[in-house]
Design goal:
Layout: E1 4-12, E2 19-25, E3 28-34, H1 36-39, E4 48-57, E5 62-67, H2 70-79, H3 87-96, H4 99-107, H5 111-114, H6 122-140, H7 145-148, H8 155-166, H9 171-181, H10 191-205
Parallel strand pairs: 3-5
Antiparallel strand pairs: 1-2, 1-4, 2-3, 4-5
Helix pairs in contact: 2-3, 4-6, 8-9, 8-10, 9-10
């Protein structure tokens, strides 16, 4: 098992869809499959990078899937342990939702948000929530995801974020809305107030 690879970033593949990076480790190039959000956080070519890796061995291929945080690799391992969730779908889930958002959606059984990931249908999303809810509740309490939250927001804003995603807004739109309304709602802890304000702000941008 290869737990991590560290070396010079030699090449990055397509920054959308099936993304990969090649890491030069002592003159040997390791191809690591990553999701598109990871590509945006990579250093410049030639600089050092470290991927926490999950190795998948099959009859026809051995592949490394890489993550910049060990907690994301652990979450990936739990995702692909669910029947019907392969490595590509696991990457798609982590590309669509950041780890705190993904865990929150699973804990809440929010299959509509989970189904936003490419290739994840409603039945798969329901199975994902059913099989991982209890396991992730315990795991989240043992990792930094328990306090990380999304951009340091409270549970209220996490709930609003998931509600907006379920309404069809993109992650970038949701992030912009929450960042825009946060200053005037700093002392407000009612979910419906945040949700109405976010929707109103998004409507103004159309």
């Amino acid at each position: 098992m290869i737990a991590f690879v560290r070396g010079a970033l030699a090449q990055v593949g397509p920054r959308t869809g099936a993304c990969w990076a090649i890491v030069d480790v002592g003159g040997v190039g390791y191809q690591v499959w990553i999701h598109s959000r990871t590509t945006n956080a990579l250093p410049a070519l030639g600089e050092e990078v470290k991927f926490f890796t999950h190795m998948v061995v099959r009859e026809d291929a051995t592949q490394l899937f890489g993550f910049l945080e060990s907690s994301e690799r652990e979450l990936f391992g739990k995702l692909i342990g669910v029947s019907g969730i392969g490595p590509r779908m696991g990457l798609a889930l982590l590309d669509t939702l950041k780890p705190p958002e993904l865990v929150q959606a699973i804990l809440q059984g929010n299959s509509r948000v989970l189904a936003l990931a490419p290739g994840v249908g409603s039945k798969t999303a329901e199975r994902l929530a059913l099989e991982l809810r209890t396991q992730l509740a315990k795991w989240r309490g043992e990792t930094e995801l328990a306090v990380a939250g999304t951009r340091g927001h409270s549970k209220v804003t996490e709930d609003v974020e998931l509600a907006l995603l379920a309404l069809g807004y993109t992650p970038n739109e949701v992030a912009a809305a929450l960042n825009a309304i946060a200053p005037q709602l700093a002392n407000q802890n009612q979910t419906d107030v945040w949700l109405r304000s976010a929707i109103a702000w998004l409507a103004e941008q159309e």
